[in-house]
């Protein structure tokens, strides 16, 4: 055998070895359950290769994507059910939480039932919401930054809101101030990514808030590139083809009010230092600004909603740093024109949407979705909150969030935009 032949053989063997290593280490993020299906996943045709759906969408995958999908699916053992012991644990659990967080103690939970509103036709709602989204993504009359780019053009750091549960085949894009704390809790329970004394949490509300928002708790798309390098995008696209993808949205202006309430009306040292102090310096006449939020609140000094809107509209703001996730536009967090979401929920119909989604995911028998906050910011509050905001500012603010209004079917707030 010549040296050239030996060299080629060595290259082939090394390539096979590296592929096997990828398969082995894939288990670190639960990929043994990589091809689980849910009831809203694209169907698998009879006789197809395990894990590969014939027909819709798959023939368009690049060769490397198809190769990885076939290779992984032929070697990974599917498991379509939660182990019985785990299911029994999840089905149990306390009915009400111990409120340890200041925000949750202040706002409280609404444990009342909402059966009167359960008559909504969820299937039709989903069809309409997805139709609206897809139509406006394709409509050239609606323009906004990053609309025309492809999924491959999205930087990895912008994919940190996509949380993956490989056990059930679910991808959730979380939007702050849209019940994301409780949906993150649900994702932790489903993925069993966090243990309590060696046992996975079985009740979402038992999970302490500080663990819910710990980035190490969740597997996000942003972490893929650190693990898989050049293979990360291929693996992301395979999962997006096979998994159920969902997000929850909210009236953009009401979301802003909610963000202001929770981050600036409550004592939040982090947001005081990062945002309140700069706002007070730029937009108020105060000269001696307290160094701590406790001192500021005791002295009656707080950022006003007026100051907050000034900050959002100030062209200098995003030149210094991108919007914080609590008031960043949803289209910038979840990329709805690049990702084909299977389910679009709304906070305005949270109870019904959440119950329906858990049924579709076939996990509704395991736990109940955590209840809404008792005094959740309501749409009817908009007139009062914007009363002191000049109409010209409101119009500029609408343009800033117009894509979120239009893509997700929220009516233009004409009453706020006219003199």
UniProtKB/TrEMBL annotation:
EC number annotated for this UniProt entry: 2.8.2.-
Entry keywords, A to Z = Carbohydrate metabolism, Glycoprotein, Golgi apparatus, Membrane, Signal-anchor, Transferase, Transmembrane, Transmembrane helix
GO CC annotations on file: Golgi membrane
The keyword Transmembrane is annotated on this UniProt entry: yes
- TM ranges are 7-26
Task: Give the domain of life.
Answer: Eukaryota
| Signal peptide as annotated in the record | none
For whether the record's keyword set contains Oxidoreductase, the answer is no
Where in or outside the cell is it found? Golgi apparatus membrane
Q: Tell me the Gene Ontology biological-process terms attached to this UniProt entry.
A: carbohydrate biosynthetic process; proteoglycan biosynthetic process
What does the record say about its membrane topology?
Single-pass type II membrane protein
User: From the UniProt record, which GO molecular function terms apply?
Assistant: sulfotransferase activity
Family, similarity comment: Belongs to the sulfotransferase 2 family.
- Name by which UniProt lists this protein: Carbohydrate sulfotransferase
């Amino acid at each position: 055998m010549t040296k050239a032949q030996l060299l080629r053989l060595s290259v082939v063997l090394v390539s096979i070895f590296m592929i096997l290593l990828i398969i082995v280490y894939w288990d670190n993020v639960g990929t043994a359950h990589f091809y689980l299906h849910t009831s809203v996943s694209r169907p698998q045709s009879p006789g197809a290769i395990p894990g590969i759906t014939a027909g819709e969408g798959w023939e368009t995958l690049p060769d490397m994507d198809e190769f990885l999908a076939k290779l992984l699916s032929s070697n990974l053992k599917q498991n379509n059910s939660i182990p019985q012991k785990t299911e029994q644990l999840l089905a149990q659990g306390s009915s009400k939480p111990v409120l340890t967080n200041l925000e949750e103690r202040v706002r409280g939970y609404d444990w009342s039932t909402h059966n009167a509103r359960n008559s909504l036709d969820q299937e039709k709602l989903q069809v309409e919401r997805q139709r609206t989204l897809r139509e406006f993504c394709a409509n050239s009359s609606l323009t906004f930054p990053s609309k025309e780019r492809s999924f491959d053009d999205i930087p990895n750091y912008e994919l940190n809101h996509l949380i993956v549960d490989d056990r059930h085949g679910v991808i959730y894009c979380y939007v702050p101030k849209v019940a994301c704390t409780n949906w993150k809790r649900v994702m932790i329970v489903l993925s069993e990514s966090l243990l309590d004394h060696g046992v996975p949490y079985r009740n979402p509300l038992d999970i302490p808030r500080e663990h819910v928002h710990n980035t190490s708790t969740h597997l996000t798309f942003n972490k893929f590139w650190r693990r898989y390098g050049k293979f990360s995008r291929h693996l992301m696209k395979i999962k997006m083809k096979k998994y159920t993808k969902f997000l929850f949205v909210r009236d953009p202006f009401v979301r802003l009010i909610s963000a202001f309430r929770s981050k600036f009306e409550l004592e939040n040292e982090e947001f005081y230092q990062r945002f309140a102090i700069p706002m007070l310096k730029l937009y108020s006449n105060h000269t001696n600004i307290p160094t701590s939020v406790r001192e500021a609140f005791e002295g009656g000094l707080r950022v006003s909603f007026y100051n907050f809107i000034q900050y959002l509209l100030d062209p200098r703001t995003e030149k210094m740093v991108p919007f914080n996730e609590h008031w960043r536009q949803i289209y910038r967090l979840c990329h709805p024109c690049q990702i084909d979401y299977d389910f679009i929920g709304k906070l305005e119909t949270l109870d019904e949407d959440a119950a329906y989604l858990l049924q579709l995911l076939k996990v509704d028998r395991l736990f109940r979705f955590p209840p809404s906050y008792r005094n959740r910011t309501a749409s009817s509050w908009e007139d009062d909150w914007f009363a002191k905001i000049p109409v010209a500012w409101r119009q500029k603010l609408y343009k800033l969030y117009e894509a979120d209004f239009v893509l997700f079917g929220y009516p233009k707030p004409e009453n706020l935009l006219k003199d």
